[in-house]
Write a structure and sequence with these properties.
single chain; 182 residues; 4-stranded mixed beta sheet; 3-stranded antiparallel beta sheet; globular; disordered C terminus
C-alpha cells in the first residue's frame, strides 16, 4: 500500500494545530469560505450588532464559524454554510490560514474557496443581519471585518483583471485546477 499525500486542507490544519500547541493559551479555531456563484457574485454576510460580537455591523466575505473540538475545518465550513445559509458548496479548496494570537479577533482562521451548488434564490440568513450575493468587484468596497478583507484581497488579486468576467485565475496562485472556473 503506497503513501498517500495529505490534502492541502489537511496539511494546513496540521500546521495550525502545531502553531496552536506552541501558544501558551489555545486559540479558538474558525473555518470560513469565499463562496462564488456562476454569476460572479460572492456570498457575504452582514454581522449582527449584538453585544459580545467582534466587529458588529461589518460584512464578511468568508462566512463560517467555530470549528468544534475534534472536527476538521473542511467539515466545519460545510456544516456552518448549511446551518447559517442553507447553502451547499462544491469544489472546496483550502486557500489560506490566518493566525491572530492577540486582540478581539484572536484565533486560527481556515479560509476555503468554493462554488455555490445550491440555487442562489435558496440562500437564507439564519445568523447575522443579512446575507447577500455581491458582485466580486464590489466586495472590497464593503465595510469588512479586517480578517475577511485580508482573506479576500489575495483571492481578488488572483483573478486576472482582464478576465474577471470569466473568473480566469492567474497561474501564479497555488490553487489547483487554476484554469477557467464557472
Amino acid at each position: 500500500m503506497g503513501f498517500k499525500e495529505p490534502s492541502r486542507a489537511r496539511q494546513l490544519h496540521l500546521i495550525s494545530l502545531r502553531l496552536n500547541k506552541q501558544s501558551s493559551k489555545a486559540l479558538p479555531v474558525f473555518a470560513g469560505c469565499i463562496v462564488k456563484t456562476k454569476r460572479r457574485r460572492i456570498l457575504c454576510q452582514l454581522r449582527d450588532k449584538k453585544r459580545g460580537i467582534a466587529f458588529p455591523g461589518y460584512w464578511t466575505c468568508a462566512p463560517g464559524g467555530h470549528v468544534r473540538s475534534g472536527e476538521e475545518p473542511l467539515k466545519a465550513v460545510r456544516r456552518e454554510l448549511k446551518e447559517e445559509f442553507e447553502a451547499q458548496v462544491k469544489n472546496l479548496r483550502a486557500f489560506k490560514v490566518l493566525v491572530r494570537k492577540t486582540g478581539k479577533a484572536a484565533g486560527v482562521y481556515h479560509i476555503f474557496t468554493g462554488e455555490l451548488s445550491s440555487p442562489e434564490n435558496g440562500i437564507r440568513c439564519h445568523e447575522g443581519q443579512k446575507a447577500a450575493l455581491i458582485p466580486v468587484d464590489q466586495v472590497l468596497k464593503l465595510r469588512q471585518h479586517p480578517l475577511s478583507r485580508e482573506a479576500f484581497k489575495p483571492y481578488f488579486s488572483a483573478v486576472d483583471p482582464n478576465e474577471r468576467s470569466t473568473w480566469k485565475v492567474k497561474s501564479r496562485t497555488k490553487r489547483s485546477g487554476g484554469g477557467r472556473q464557472s
